[in-house]
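Re: that chain you flagged

S.,

Sorry for the slow reply, it's been a week of failed gels. I finally had a moment to sit down with the sequence you sent. For the record, here it is as I used it:
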Amino acid sequence: MEPTLIGYFPKKTATRPDWLKVSHVEEICSASECISVGPLGWIEAWKHNGNWLFNSPEVAWGLTGDAKREFEMYAFAQFPFRLEDGQLISEPMSSTAVVPLPENFELLGYDAVARSCGTTFECSPLSCNRGASSMTCNSHCLFDTLEAAIEGAKEFSHGPWEPGPYYVVAVYRERRGSAGRHGSGERSRT
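Prediction finished late last night. Pasting the structure tokens below so you have them in one place:
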């Protein structure tokens, strides 16, 4: 089962908030914008695709303006199913106009993210609802395996979490210090 690359998104990667008492979590790399946010006004610019992401890193970087050094570039690949009330439901993916993932992106893990109001990512309970306190996750506050993400999404879709349905996405980030990072090799942690 292969995921489909659905787009790129620049984020200000936040360090673990004090209220998330999980010492091995160093940063929040979730698909949602609840903690690690994107650039101001990105929706109004109306350059996003049908998944509310961007078809290329170049288009996404264009929205960061003078604040470019504060952001890191993420990419998301969605698996062809959703989870509702604990049930896995097939949801075929259509082809996209997203440019292929550059070699300087690395897989950080997998996220289970809600999309109750349409196509934009909403809540990622591992970080947004302190799910990392009771579920196994990595230092990026993501699941390490696809299987763990599916199990997490099942739990989120029928437990006391945010409303679903839930989707599982592979989360990639442009490797720190890579040339594609506009030569800065720096990042800001909010």
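What I noticed first: The beta strands are 4-11, 14-15, 27-28, 72-78, 81-84, 87-90, 105-114, 166-174.

Talk soon,
D.
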